[in-house]
Design a protein that fits this description.
The complex is a heterotrimer of chains A (about 230), B (about 350) and C (about 625). With about 350 residues, chain B is of the alpha/beta class. Helices cover about 30% and strands about 20% of the residues of chain B. The relative contact order of chain C is 0.11. The chains are: A alpha/beta (about 230), B alpha/beta (about 350), C mainly alpha (about 625). The interface of A and C includes residues 85, 89, 95 and 98 of A.
Chain lengths: ~230, ~350, ~625
């Protein structure tokens, strides 16, 4: 919270519009997130929360509007120019198993961003992976397993470790604990809180649980039928 | 072993030493509790706790391949080991099921009203027209207009489907309704509507409701008593108000403490939530003593790790824990340590 | 024609592009038929001349006169144009051999074939009911391996067995010709039993999974009687299966060729085969067109029935069935069958299949000739062994080609869907006839014919997997870390698709070998004296009364092959996750199938754990 300040926002979304066919699922949505700040996005299912996340990540290009991230406008960039920037903004999805390839070991999944970046180093790489595993509270032995050999909570931690391997500035957390058993949720939330304090990450936290959002977020925006009613 | 009845009401359903296994894997491991007439009993647990299996056993509908032992007694009828004809005579008339909402909860190729009519005609010998009329009336009672009766399930919203399912389960005024995660995957507003409907419909019919859920907010809002399950066993049972106010089992305490509602205001500076370490065990690989011991802050090295705690009952509350008396007044702090 | 095409298109609407591909494929097939005289490459004038006046000298002038007469000189396009415009006027051309109009022969053959297929359909329905009834009564289990075995028996084998048993040894029924109703019995049985096995199996295998759907629990819990639940489950099963029933009808048209040949039934299939062998291309064009139309009409009817069953409200609902749990034969079964086959083949390979010994003709099995000798005194075991090598070897090559094609085209889902629909409407025998007419009969032609129709199911499987991988969350995660499309393709998509599709292809090998054998049996594949299983069976039919073992050996070998195909198919079905049946209707639970596709990557221990988790039925949120 100490990071919240009047410096330039990390993410600045202006008049974002996403259409599915003729239906407007995200309707002129604007918000911003500063480094170290958590913005909660809350609303009933189908209100456009996840579409907003995908549009901010440029995984689904918005139909109009601007997404300024770290001083650069993303919507105008072509895929080639965007690719090197992608790692600085990482998603964590609801389904802990869905975001990791079922065929790859956890260790390889965490190392993949380094390979993609071209920054994999045979001598320091394994140590970096081990450090990431430890940072998210996983055992080194977990690295040798595949996603289905882990519990949902462990898998979600692995997904977070993979996101951290990218050295991001912003995490888009799309219902990161909704698919987990109640006894595992608090652990993941505590991990996210700790990482934020240590690394000064900005969070967009999407959730439908009002109490949880109120507990976890600095600011809360409410979404309904694709529109934002700020609070 | 036995759970004492609340003095005011009679026991409707009594479960004794219920065990359900698949081959060598035991998923429900000796469960005993009672359901009283007219009460709402919540069965709480995480995935793998065996609560959905228990729900099926209460209906006398164990899944294929399951071996059920112990006793499930509904009034004078024993459901475990009873021939199918005995059990099926109870279905719809004395016990009914409200399954988890999904498109698959209703047949996708039949009109909604026809599905209710099939249930009417199976029990009462009435004409096709009469059955249909009663089906439409039952749908209207749960707030589904008569002109929607011709619709197919996929044309309904999730909330409407679940209301239709409730109407179908309540057609023959059963004494006991078992609702298995009735609101999973719905947004909070729909959840509330469906649960309110379920409570009013069973209340009006004087039926008991067993609410299987993992959602503590639902339990607090709608249940009279609760049974908490962990890894196929009962860890705590008692009146909802008392359990929430002063949990006795460490697992229940951790579960309650880790929900943000307990700490609604962030300004207290408490951003970390109390959390239970580790993950629930898989039924194929259970620890030898108390199943919760590896995650429990109260665990001692001897009894908890070697000996399964048996449920003991004091002042109307049941708990299965060797060290429940040592749980501090503010158990949340125990779980803050373990972060 | 356009009506049929429209119906076909309306029947399955996963996208108009697939519909266009379908029309394109159909046009290509029609053009192939129309261009047969040009494609065949041989001078048809020679055929015509021989047929018209055998003694006339084949002088250039005489041939030119005939070419002029037939309009062959004008090139392929005008040939196609002439043929098409003739069709529109109801003129199917004139037979080159008999010089008579084609249309009456086609109509006559069609009448016979239609009544045969009608009878066969009756048999099929009876068989299917017999298979489904016990499953409905018990509300669990499935049709079991008997049904699976029935499905795998190729019609030509069953027809030969029926001929042997019912006609020759027992002498109860006439075995050849088409004079009275009693002539219909054996052909209808041979044609109807595999079809009925397939129908029954489709329904019976789908039922247990449907009976475990959540709504059955709700209905049961609300007091609905078991009889009503059974009826509702049947009603639930039918709509997604009806298109496959259409394919069964299509299969009948292919099977009819073999059955009509064995029992000398003057139907359209036998007409087509005869025309192909005698190079009478106009007659062949007419009869193949009739067979194709039969198949398309059957498919369109199935689509109409499905629409009716689904009702107006459900047309877009994308209904799928829960993945059926295939009946698994004990792993020892395929292993034992494979061992028997391999022993025979290995032993036979050590012997000489061509050595003719006229002093040892039609001998019973002995130590010198373990499986006896054939009509020329050749060693049956040796011919069986060498036949297997060529049949299975060709089948393996076909498999590989199909796999490569499937992987390449799997990335074009609409092409895969459209072509697989057309391939489903074409029985291998008809393609074999077309190829043989164009390229002449031979192993290469038969392989080409089987390859043409064996890649589309694999491509459909690959396309389904590609779509599922592309739609999965982890690909989003890939793009989010800045991975290039090439990286994603080579590291994630291809590995996810290749392994299951390759397994699927390998498991289809016995089926492909059977298709090759059936072409050999009809004289469309390998030519004498080459040892080929289908050909062996065909040759031995001539002296089956005197030397039954000569026929029995290839028949049993083929049956063992069929058994192998069945016991392996159960494993293939698990991998495909019902992709063949459900991919077309659109998957409501893509993630589930994705999981199925990946299940094979888990170690046995985890799979066991997973299945326990599943059986515990805790809702996974």
């Amino acid at each position: 919270m100490s990071h919240v300040s009047d410096v330039n926002p990390l993410l600045d979304v202006r008049d974002l519009v996403v259409r599915h066919g003729t239906r407007t699922v995200v309707d002129h949505v604007s918000f911003d997130i500063s480094p170290g700040e958590t913005l909660g996005l809350i609303g009933p299912s189908g209100c456009g929360k996840s579409s907003t996340a995908m549009a901010v990540l440029q995984l689904r290009r918005p139909d109009s509007g601007e997404v300024w991230f770290d001083g650069q406008e993303l919507t105008a960039m072509d895929e080639r120019r965007l690719r090197p920037l992608r790692q600085t903004m990482q998603p964590v999805f609801q389904d802990p198993y869905g975001s990791l390839s079922p065929r790859h070991r956890i260790r390889d999944a965490i190392a993949e961003p380094l390979h993609v970046q071209g920054s994999w180093d045979r001598t320091t790489g394994p140590a970096r992976v081990a450090e990431l595993l430890e940072r998210v509270g996983l055992d080194p032995t977990h690295g040798d397993r595949r996603p289905h050999e882990l519990s949902g909570g462990q898998c979600q931690r692995a997904g977070i470790a993979r996101a951290l391997a990218c050295e991001p500035k912003l995490l888009i957390l799309d219902e990161p604990v909704s698919a987990l058993d109640p006894s595992l949720r608090a652990g993941i939330l505590n991990l996210l809180a700790e990482l934020q304090e240590r690394l000064g990450l900005g969070y967009l936290f999407i959730c439908h649980d009002r109490a949880l959002v109120r507990h976890f977020c600095d600011r809360v925006a409410e979404m309904r039928d694709g529109r934002l009613s700020s609070s | 072993m036995s759970t004492p009845s609340t003095p005011s009401t009679e026991v409707l359903l009594s479960v004794r030493d219920l065990r359900i296994s698949f081959g060598a894997v035991e998923a429900v491991r000796g469960l005993s509790f009672d359901v009283h007439e007219g009460e709402v009993l919540a069965v709480v647990g995480e995935s793998g706790a065996g609560k959905s299996l228990t729900a099926r056993a209460l209906l006398g509908m164990p899944p294929r391949g399951a071996t059920v032992t112990g006793s499930v007694r509904l009034g004078a009828d024993e459901l475990v080991d009873a021939p199918r004809s005995v059990r099926s005579a109870l279905w719809g008339r004395r016990v009914a099921l409200v399954p988890q909402d999904a498109l698959s909860a209703l047949s996708p190729v039949h009109q909604v009203a026809d599905q209710l009519a099939a249930a009417v005609r199976s029990v009462d010998r009435v004409s096709r027209k009469e059955a249909r009329a009663r089906a439409v009336a039952a749908l209207e009672e749960v707030g589904i207009a008569a002109d929607k009766a011709r619709a197919y399930p996929h044309e309904f919203s999730g909330g409407m489907r679940q209301r239709a399912v409730i109407a179908m389960a309540m057609l023959h005024q059963p004494d006991l309704v078992i609702a298995d995660e009735p609101t999973t995957a719905q947004d909070p507003e729909t959840q509330k509507q469906v649960l309110d409907l379920l409570a009013t419909r069973t209340g009006a019919a004087g039926a008991s409701l067993v609410l299987v859920t993992h959602d503590l907010a639902t339990v607090r809002e709608h249940a009279d008593r609760m049974v908490v399950m962990y890894a196929g066993r009962l860890v705590e049972a008692g009146p909802v108000g008392e359990v929430f106010a002063r949990p006795r089992a460490p697992y229940t305490a951790g579960l309650l403490a880790s929900v943000p509602e307990a700490h609604p205001v962030r300004s207290t500076g408490l951003r970390r939530l109390p959390a239970i370490a580790g993950a629930p065990p898989v039924p194929t690989d259970l620890p030898p003593g108390c199943a919760f011991a590896p995650r429990c802050p109260l665990t001692d090295a001897t009894r908890c790790r070697t000996e399964q705690p048996e449920p003991e009952t004091h002042d109307g509350r049941t708990v299965a824990c060797h060290r429940w008396r040592e749980l501090p007044d503010n158990p949340a702090e125990l779980f803050l340590e373990t972060v | 024609m356009t009506l049929v095409a429209r119906l076909l298109k309306a029947a399955r609407t996963p996208g108009s592009r697939a519909g266009l591909t379908r029309l394109g494929c159909l046009a290509a097939v029609l053009a192939t038929v129309g261009l047969l005289p040009w494609l065949s490459g041989r001078d048809p004038a020679l055929t015509v001349l021989r047929a018209r006046s055998a003694e006339q000298e084949a002088t250039e002038e005489a041939l030119d006169a005939i070419r002029e007469d037939l309009g062959l000189g004008a090139g392929p396009l005008s040939l196609l144009g002439n043929w098409a415009s003739g069709l529109l006027r109801g003129d199917f051309g004139t037979s080159w051999v008999s010089g008579t109009d084609v249309l009456p022969s086609v109509v006559a053959g069609l009448q016979v074939s239609l009544s045969l297929m009608g009878a066969a359909l009756g048999v099929a329905l009876l068989v299917a009911c017999a298979l489904v009834a016990p499953v409905l009564v018990r509300a669990r289990g499935s049709a079991g391996s008997l049904a699976a075995m029935l499905v795998a028996l190729p019609e030509f084998l069953l027809a030969t067995l029926a001929l042997l048993v019912g006609g020759v040894w027992l002498g109860w029924l006439p075995t050849s010709g088409w004079v009275g109703p009693q002539y219909m019995v054996l052909p209808a049985l041979a044609l109807g039993i595999p079809a009925g096995g397939l129908l029954g199996r489709l329904v019976a295998d789908a039922l247990p999974a449907v009976l475990e759907e959540r709504w059955v629990e709700l209905w049961r819990g609300a007091g609905v009687s078991q009889a009503r639940i059974s009826a509702a489950a049947l009603r639930r099963v039918l709509p997604p299966l009806v298109p496959q029933f259409g394919m069964v009808a299509v299969g009948l048209t292919g099977g009819a060729v073999a059955v009509e040949v064995v029992f000398a039934v003057p139907g359209i299939g036998r007409t087509a085969l005869g025309a192909a062998k005698s190079q009478d291309l106009p007659l062949l064009q007419g009869s193949v067109l009739a067979l194709l139309t039969l198949g398309l009409v059957a498919g369109a009817l199935a689509a109409l029935v499905r629409r009716r069953l689904l009702g107006p409200a459900l047309r877009d609902a994308g209904l799928t069935l829960p993945a059926a749990r295939p009946v698994r034969a004990h792993p020892a079964v395929p292993v034992a069958l494979g061992a028997v086959l391999l022993t025979c083949i290995g032993w036979g390979l050590l012997r000489d299949p061509y050595a003719v010994d006229t002093t040892a003709r039609l001998q019973a099995p002995s130590w010198a000739y373990p499986l006896g000798t054939d009509g020329l005194g050749r060693d049956v075991l040796a011919r069986l062994g060498h036949g297997a090598a060529s049949t299975v070897g060709t089948a393996a090559a076909v498999c590989l080609v199909s796999l490569l094609l499937a992987l390449a085209l799997g990335f074009l889902p609409s092409v895969a869907a459209g072509s697989s629909d057309i391939a489903n409407a074409l029985p291998p025998v008809i393609v074999g006839i077309l190829v043989a007419a164009a390229a002449g009969p031979g192993t290469g032609g038969a392989a080409l014919a089987v390859a043409l129709i064996s890649w589309p199911p694999l491509a459909a499987h690959a396309a389904a997997l590609v779509q599922e991988v592309r739609a999965s969350t982890f690909l989003h995660a890939q793009r989010a870390i800045g991975a290039t499309p090439f990286w994603i393709l080579t590291r994630h998509v291809l590995p996810s698709v290749t392994a299951p599709v390759a397994r699927h292809a390998i498991l289809r090998l016995p089926g492909i070998a059977l298709a090759l054998a059936s072409l050999g049996f009809l004289g469309l594949g390998a030519q004498p004296p080459a040892p080929e299983w289908g050909l062996l069976l065909d040759e031995s039919r001539a002296y089956v009364e005197r030397a039954p073992w000569a026929a029995l050996a290839p028949a049993v070998a083929l049956a063992v092959m069929a058994g192998l195909a069945v016991s392996l198919a159960a494993y293939a079905e698990r991998d495909a996750g019902g992709a063949g049946g459900t991919a077309r209707t659109g998957s409501a639970s893509g993630r589930g199938r994705f999981a199925v596709a990946f299940a094979s990557f888990r170690s046995p221990k985890e799979s066991a754990q997973g299945s326990v988790k599943e059986s515990l039925k805790e809702p996974v949120r």
